[in-house]
Amino acid sequence: FLKLVFLVLSAYMANAELRIGGGDQKWDVRQWYAQVDGVMGGKSSGYLEFEQSNSIMLFYGNINLDGGGFSSVRKQTFQRTDLTPFAGIVVELEAEDLAAAQRSKNSSPLGLHLQFRDNSRYGFSAAFAVPLSMEPGVETSVFLPLENFDRGDRNGFPCRNCALDATWVIQEGDFRVRIKSITAVDKDISFESPSVSFESVDDVNSLIDDTIYSSSYLYDYGYTELCISKYWSMISTLMEATSNVSDDLKGVMCAGLLHSTTQDTKELVAWSLRYTIDAVFADLNGENRTKTFSWLPAGESALTYADKCVGTTSLSSNPDSFVSTSNFTMPYDDLSPIPTGSMSELSVNPPSSGIW
Predict the structure, then answer these.
(1) Phi, psi at residue 33, to the nearest 5°?
(2) Which of 262, 310, 78, 259 lies closest to 172, judged by CA?
(3) Calpha distance 77→197 (Å, rounded)
(4) C-beta of residue 116 within 8 angstroms of C-beta of residue 164
(5) Alpha-carbon distances of 205 from 2, 219, 305, 308, rounded to whole Å
(6) Are 197 and 243 contacting, i.e. CB atoms less than 8 angstroms apart?
(7) Which distant-in-sequence residues (6+ apart) come within 8 Å of 319 by Cβ?
(8) 0.85 exceeded by the pTM?
(9) Closest by alpha carbon to 91, among 149, 141, 21?
(10) Model pLDDT for residues 248-275, shown as the tens digit of each residue
């Protein structure tokens, strides 16, 4: 489910932070407008509203992949802004209601892009996913390190060797999403995922199925960063579950997250997370794992990692951002190659809505 929201920079400085939009200054409703893929012959829709005295930007609509396949929010004017003093971007938003997502037959986390442009005319995106929560209106935040804005593209064509010029930027981002503020901050920070509870193992299975289905197709279409973000977000949701997710399963997920930080390509990170999810699904349902790896423990061995990690709202290559104790060791890796290829060819059950 691809949704692009373009947010052009207009900022102010306060206490080592740079407000890009929203927050105490609220959203300037005269400056923002929606633009959809009709300019490219597409059929998507996008609507922009401002709630609670302009303190929340609500962007919603429908993405139709028959055509351009995007919907965006843009700003009328922008100013050049220097981001080099900052560590990254914090997006403050409302979490997605898991119960409502389950009723819609697609409980997969919504994957989004936040994008900047520089003087090269390329856009540079960082992917994240809207965290899940047990009820509507839960406020949460996502931190995006500046180095994560490394997916370069122009007019839909990726640039494989581009580098972000953080001195002059124009910001963009993504979709139904309620954004409270977007802020550049000078220090790395992590946010714990909201706590959730599952009424049954079937609900856990549905979340896993839906996430695998949507994320694997994103991977195969070249949106590796979105795939990773959705996998990470779903794993973090399960890590913070208070029911129907056992401690040994949380240990498996912790080991998988730790292993992903040792991988040197996005593709290997994505597959590390995918195989972690596959192992969790098999263990949850009492089935044999289709693939085994030295770094993915099982049973009593997995319990070693059960209390070592917390679920966080955004992916990280630094274990310190999600490890809850200094007393831990990285899972043993015998350096066996991780099989890669097409993810969508693996057997998964599509959500009945058919929405990515």
Answers:
(1) -150, 160
(2) 78
(3) 44
(4) yes
(5) 23, 21, 22, 24
(6) yes
(7) 257, 258, 261, 328, 330
(8) yes
(9) 141
(10) 999 999 999 999 999 999 999 999 999 9
